[in-house]
Amino acid sequence: MRYPIYIHKTETGTYSGFVPDVTGCYFAGDTFENTIKDAAEAIDAHVEFTVDEGGAIPEAKTFDAHLDNEDCQGGTWAYVDVDVSKYDGKAIKLNITIAQNLLARIDRYVEEHREYGSRSGFLAELARRELAKT
């Protein structure tokens, strides 16, 4: 899942930030690159803890959803990809029936949007999003 992260430079020259879609998830680093790496680790740890406690994987929104947030002004935005599929449990192979043209469209979309990894990853991500609405 691609989480937007908000980063700002501190008065001491280091960086820190937070993940607007993951309440209480903060990170920091000496360099911008290390800060992004720490953000990925912080999100991963937060999601693992949340799932272990019986909670749902936090839904990732876009930058646009947070542009008016007063805590997200004057800094820099980035995305961090976190593989949340490992928190869904063991993968199970199944057979489904789907229209040929729809499957071809899905495959083309996944080819253009490699963050999904595969058609299964795409379908699982859409299912997560819809289930998070309930």
Descriptive report:
- This protein has 134 residues and is an alpha+beta fold.
- It folds into two domains: 1-87, Double Stranded RNA Binding Domain, CATH 3.30.160.250; 90-134.
- Helices cover 36% and strands 16% of the residues.
- It has three helices and four strands; from the N terminus they run E-E-E-H-E-H-H.
- The protein has a four-stranded antiparallel β-sheet with strand order 3-2-1-4, covered by helices on one side.
- The longest helix is centred in the first third of the chain and has 21 residues, at 32-52.
- The mean pLDDT is 90.
Walk me through the topology.
Layout (H helix, E strand, L loop, with lengths): L1 E8 L5 E4 L7 E4 L2 H21 L23 E6 L18 H13 L6 H14 L2
GO molecular function: sequence-specific DNA binding
- Largest sheet entry: 4 strands, antiparallel
| Total count of helical runs of at least 4 residues | 3
| CATH architecture level-2 label of the largest domain | 2-Layer Sandwich
Alpha-carbon distance between the two ends = 19 Å
Strands, total number: 4
